[in-house]
Amino acid sequence: MSRFSNTISSFYTKNKKYFNKRTMQSAALSMAMVLLISGAVVCAPEEKKVTTDVDIKPASTAGVFAAVSAMELSAGSSDLVYASAGVVVVSATSDQAGPYEDDVYDEWSDKVMAKDINDYLSIRSEADGSSEVIGKLRTNDIATLIDVFDGWYEIESGNAHGFVSADYCVTGMEAYEYALDVCDSYATTDVNGLRIRSEASEDSKILKVVSKGTKLEVCSDAEEIDGWVAVTSGNDTGYVKADYVDVDMATGEAITLEEEAAAKKAAEEETARKAAEQAALAEQAKVAAAEAAAAKQAVIASADDITLLAAIIQIEAGSECYDGQVAVGAVVMNRVLSGSYANNIHDVIFARGQFATSRMSSVISRGPKASCLQAAQDALAGSDPTGGRVHFRRAGSKDGLIIGNHVFY
Predict the structure, then answer these.
(1) Is 254 within 8 Å of 137 (Cβ atoms)?
(2) pLDDT per residue over 96-142, tens digit each?
(3) Given phi > 0 = left and psi -120 to 50 = alpha, else beta, which region is 63?
(4) CATH architecture of the domain formed by 186-240
(5) What is the number of alpha carbons within 13 Å of residue 18 lying toward its C-beta?
(6) pTM value surpassing 0.85
């Protein structure tokens, strides 16, 4: 019997990474039934006895299922331990037992992730480094373990089904712990009107209210507070009640080379579409600007000299005293008569860099105000408060004749 126990122990030691908690419980139950029925007794060091919640009587096999189910498996003991009933039980070792729920074990027991890779791990058609690459398992991708070969894992992820080098993979709970490090987490709201608060307290400031189904990025750097989840939404970082969100990791699936090529083509087409759309918008804007400029020119071209002069007076000196308005009109007329500038009002006003003409068409369309029209008429009639000057600026910027807020020179 001792030899049998040693065989079982050796097998488990070599293969314990493929066992999970449920496997251990099933193995314990099966072994207990075999040994109880055969009446075998295996001796082991006293300090490795399994604790139980009920007494187990070795005199009978009756109630074996209840007895075994009541056993508490020692997480830190060796592979084979002794029960008072003479039952050999395979215990959960420290690499299987931990602060995880059964559903986490179940979910991740057959999961595979690529680790210590630059960008991706090649998925090949065969368990051979020289075989065809059919897909890529990227850093955040999760795969399902199908079978194990010498140095290779057969996996399935998304539409990719092939083989990856076991040297660059982690599995089971090791994959889960790795995923916690490399994958972002998000919290999905279960209710409408969930409040994001500035601190983990119902008395703290409400930063934002979000609707049901909203995905919020979990802030992994924030302090963990029982009953609360730290989240980020836009520029706001705060806390939500843990009871009202489902927290999960943002994991992906492997991609086949065909899918990668299709995605690349789609991205190129989308880039080209956006470029064409922007070019079309630019052309439309150009045409619109040309049409607007033509419309402005039409408005200006239709205006007579008095209207043009009144419009520039309003733009340059609309808020000035009446003498100041006439003075601006007189500067325009002095240039027309000087021989050093254009010999007409339109060209003097629109000479490059001389007057602020950008609003001319709008002022003309609305019609210059009465005082500016009167000032234009007086300037055309020869009124000149400037004494023949042909320049003006804001007062204080140059020496000269000051009228209102302008200096003329």
Answers:
(1) yes
(2) 334 556 788 889 999 999 998 989 999 999 999 999 999 999 999 99
(3) left
(4) Roll (2.30)
(5) 11
(6) no
